[in-house]
Amino acid sequence: MAGTHRTIEGGRSAKGLRIAIVAARFNHFVVDKLLAGAVETLESAGISAQDLDLVRVPGAFEIPLAARKLATSHNYDAVITLGAVIRGGTPHFDYVAGECARGVSEAARDSGVPVIFGVLTCDTLEQANERSGGAHGNKGADSAIAAMEMADLLRKLEG
Question: Which CATH architecture has domain 19-158?
């Protein structure tokens, strides 16, 4: 691309941000590791305890409703969703994973607040473990980074 252009992107500081995390209790042995990664990342980036709220829901299917409620309250700069849907022997996986993803996307679009999809959709428990602190990192931590970047980016685009 010829010429000079300006690039606008978000930073990775949580200082001064209000963030909510919606985390499923189902598959807690995976989700709790995602949650720990997200919280540790946000704390390392300067979020204060009073600016971080955790909402627990029964499972991934319930995540979008809670995320939408938080995002449309406009009390938060970003909402992070965390869960784990692991494929079984029935089509249940497809319905839960698909509806969760669609609902999270709609919550962001309809509210104008970043709602980050940190819900693992894996074929096996091994894959979920690899993505919740194993060989493929911690997608909870990655989701926290995305939340900070998007919240800061929107502030820059609005201001």
Answer: 3-Layer(aba) Sandwich (3.40)
Q: How far is Cα 2 from Cα 144, in angstroms, rounded to an integer?
A: 35
Decide: residue 59, CB within 10 A, 0-12 exposed, 13-18 middle, 19+ buried: middle
| pTM listed for this prediction | 0.96
CA distances for 69 relative to 34, 64, 75, 107, 126, angstroms: 22, 9, 10, 8, 33
74 is a catalytic site residue:
no
Kindly name the residue from 5, 74, 92, 136 that is annotated as catalytic: 92
| CB neighbour list of residue 122: distance below 8 Å, 6 or more residues apart | 84, 85, 86, 87, 128, 131
The residue type found at 103 is G
Tell me the per-residue pLDDT of 115-155, one tens digit each, with 9 for 90 and over. Answer: 999 999 999 999 999 999 999 999 999 999 999 999 999 99
